[in-house]
Amino acid sequence: MNTVTDAGRYLTFTLNGEAYALDIFHVTEILEYRTLTVVPMMPEFIRGVINLRGRAVPVIDLAIRFGRGRTEIGRRTSIIIVHVDDPALAEMAELDPDDKGVTGGQDIGVLVDSASKVVTLSAGDLEPAPSFGAGIRADYISAMARRDDDFLILLDISHVLSISDMVRLSEMAQQHPAEES
């Protein structure tokens, strides 16, 4: 079972009408949606890559990652750039010695309906993640925050954007391509 995260500052955003938040510590910047370069043979939730100051940064569609369809591109669609550390990156770096700096983590773009604002949450605002009923995997949720008459879902970005999980899914997609209907 997940533990409640520490109080702190969180970037709120919407996805399919639901309110979510990420610890601001992981967020490096917020971009307006821009055209993505599609990369063949990637899992469906990797919508493409963007050129961010000369680096190719993958963009993940959280709606697809959560099994809730594709994010429709609209006027307020945003890409939140987050920095993810993953122990599996060190292993990947050993496999590709030409890939410089990968052991320091990876920047990943997260496609959302809209980025909202930064909020400060106290420990009293937070409750443990539910073991069921949120509509996404329990290990993706670090806590729930009370907000007015509703809840804000605080995501555990290290699980949601686990690079080792995504690499595994990518390898599976390449081995078993989806059949055309």
TrEMBL record:
InterPro entries: CheW, CheW-like_dom_sf, CheW-lke_dom. Pfam families: CheW. Residues 7-166 form the CheW-like domain. It comes from the Bacteria. Coiled coil: none annotated. SUPFAM superfamilies: CheW-like. PANTHER family: CHEMOTAXIS SENSOR HISTIDINE KINASE-RELATED (PTHR22617), CHEMOTAXIS SIGNAL TRANSDUCTION SYSTEM ADAPTOR PROTEIN CHEW (PTHR22617:SF41). This is Chemotaxis protein CheW. It comes from Paractinoplanes deccanensis.
